[in-house]
Here is the input.
Amino acid sequence: MDLRSLERDGVLTSNLRYRITNLFGDVEANAPGPQVFRVEQGAGQTTAPHYHAVPQFQVLDGRPGRFGRAEVSAPTIHYADPWTTYGPIVGGDAGLSYFTARMASDTGAHFMPESRHEKPQRSGRHFTVSLAPADAGEAQEGAVLDVLIEAQPDGLAAYRVRLAPGNGIELPACTGIGRLVAVVSGSLVDAGREFGLWSWGYAATVDDRAISAGSDGATVLCLDYPAAGAQATPRSAA
Here is the structure.
């Protein structure tokens, strides 16, 4: 698995409205491969409702704010199908920080309502799943897998994996177009290197399914991207 550390591998972009850190690809460039970047919005800053041409997950780090109609105060994942309007995204008193993660790059947000005439189809799936309790912690022994989004016929799925220190797991098979993983606590170890909080990984092949926790254990999000649209049923993690 291609793992990248936000601290070691992130590339800061300072010429945009918000503070952007690229981890995979570039927020301003269409290029092969995944596109993962962190967005840091200031207090009270608002991103208006909009849509994109590709499916995407977003992972909020738990700072209070508003995402669409929902007030968020715990780590949260959001998914939107292509051409699906979501937002607004509003920073709270401490601002708002989140990752946008796509299996294919997209460089333009289509803001609403002025871009309504550009939509080639109606909005599809669009939902938010809270990861509360945020301090669920790593497993005390072995591994625990929480289903966040049940696997769909088109391959869309999301899981939270909690690993005890030094333990590993083979993730469920990915049946969509690809998979990204994110470390939300603890660390993963790969080829002797440790990847801590907010490291991200790209599974380049369907057989790339094994992950191993570091000495403090790990909590990892596993995000599978759909090959085509279908309805999904999200549920909160236990």
